[in-house]
């Protein structure tokens, strides 16, 4: 089997731990090129991982003979760099969120279609062993029609620290909602089978404005939303970088006509012959979701098939996030367009 040649655009910490480290673990995959604006970071990461070619201009990576690239950049660069990579004939794995707004996300979808290349957004939550097990249970109809999900990622005090782009809206597109909430939203929409969203009512707040010295902070640290879907189902979404809660927590609760479920740990709530039943499935897999995500992307590139995370799905998620932000500004419900 010929080696699959990968380029990495952006060499920050997450690119190193989630992308580079996991591509390296797959047989017959070579990380052939790396780009970052910092020459110091380039040298250090390339030496550590024996990456043969490094560039401070990502366009030079796209001129290399590569099969695919990972885009691991600040959110504002996801759309332009992904579109350029697709136009250069590369398959693309783009870190979440897809883009800072739906208009930019739409250009990515169109570019992937025109190039006939794979575009996958990195929502690794779908690859957690619990989430995959629950998805199989839902698809088998064990919970019946899913009509409500509550999902969220909340931190007590874990604002982005150090010199970071995450708190600068021009680079990030937003704060806790687009950073953490988008994961919960994607997982909920996927678990429901991506029904069409109708409208969103959101609250988007900044209550802990302090940041690292010399850094800008003009994004929210707390967001909640109620998302109504056209089939009558609904999603309650929560995301925070800082809240006065007991401890960091993730929430994922599913309610269906035949049963319900929660994750963390996975448990099912149903009934049989009039008897209420609580069932705790045994999850034997301990594989890292990031590793499974990278492996899935590689398998799809090699087989020429669409990944389980399609660009059209990620576009829908971005449209919902847009509506939540608009609702937070207006104070009323906002239609999800598109």
Provide a short characterization of the protein structure.
This protein is an alpha/beta fold and 338 residues long. Helix content is 35%, strand content 25%.
The description of the largest β-sheet is: 9 strands, mixed
Please identify the top-level CATH class of the largest domain.
Alpha Beta
**Number of helices, where a helix is a run of at least 4 consecutive DSSP H or I residues:** 10
CA-based gyration radius: 20 Å
Order of helices and strands: EHEHEHEHEHEHEHHEEEEEEEHHE
> Structural class, from secondary structure content?
alpha/beta
Q: Which regions have little confidence, pLDDT < 50, spanning 5+ residues?
A: none
| Broad shape | globular
Q: At CATH's second level, what is the architecture of the largest domain?
A: 2-Layer Sandwich
Q: What is the residue-mean pLDDT, rounded to a whole number?
A: 96
Separation, N- and C-terminal Cα atoms: 42 Å
Question: Keywords, please?
Answer:
single chain; 338 residues; alpha/beta; Rossmann fold; Dihydrodipicolinate Reductase, domain 2; 2 domains; nine-stranded mixed sheet; six-stranded parallel sheet; 10 helices; 15 strands; 35% helix; globular
């Amino acid at each position: 089997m010929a080696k699959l040649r990968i380029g990495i655009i952006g060499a920050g910490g997450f690119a190193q731990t989630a992308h580079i480290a996991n591509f390296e673990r797959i047989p017959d995959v070579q990380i052939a090129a790396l780009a970052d604006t910092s020459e110091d970071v380039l040298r250090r990461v390339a030496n550590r991982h024996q990456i043969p070619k490094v560039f401070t201009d990502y366009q030079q990576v796209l001129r290399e003979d590569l099969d695919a690239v990972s885009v691991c950049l600040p959110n504002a660069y996801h759309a332009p760099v992904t579109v350029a990579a697709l136009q250069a004939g590369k398959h693309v794995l783009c870190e979440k969120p897809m883009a800072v707004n739906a208009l930019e996300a739409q250009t990515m979808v169109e570019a992937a279609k025109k190039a006939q290349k794979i575009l996958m957004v990195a929502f690794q939550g779908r690859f957690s062993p619990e989430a995959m097990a629950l998805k199989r249970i839902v698809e088998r109809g064990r919970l019946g029609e899913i009509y409500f999900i509550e999902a969220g990622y909340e931190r007590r005090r874990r604002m982005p620290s150090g010199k970071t782009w995450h708190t600068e809206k021009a680079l990030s597109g937003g704060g806790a909602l687009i950073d953490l909430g988008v994961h919960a939203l994607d997982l909920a929409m996927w678990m429901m089978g991506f029904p069409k969203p109708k409208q969103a009512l959101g609250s988007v707040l900044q209550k802990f404005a302090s940041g690292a010295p010399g850094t800008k902070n003009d994004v929210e640290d707390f967001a909640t939303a109620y998302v109504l879907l056209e089939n009558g189902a609904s999603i309650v979404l929560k995301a925070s970088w800082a809240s006065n809660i007991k401890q960091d927590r993730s929430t994922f609760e599913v309610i269906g006509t035949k049963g319900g479920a929660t994750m963390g740990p996975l448990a099912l709530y149903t009934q049989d012959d009039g008897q209420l039943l609580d069932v705790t499935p045994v999850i034997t897999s301990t594989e890292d979701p990031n590793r499974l995500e990278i492996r899935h992307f590689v398998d799809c590139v090699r087989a020429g098939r669409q990944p389980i995370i399609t660009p059209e799905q990620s576009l829908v998620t971005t449209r919902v996030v847009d509506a939540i932000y608009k609702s937070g500004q207006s104070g009323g419900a906002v239609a999800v367009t598109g």
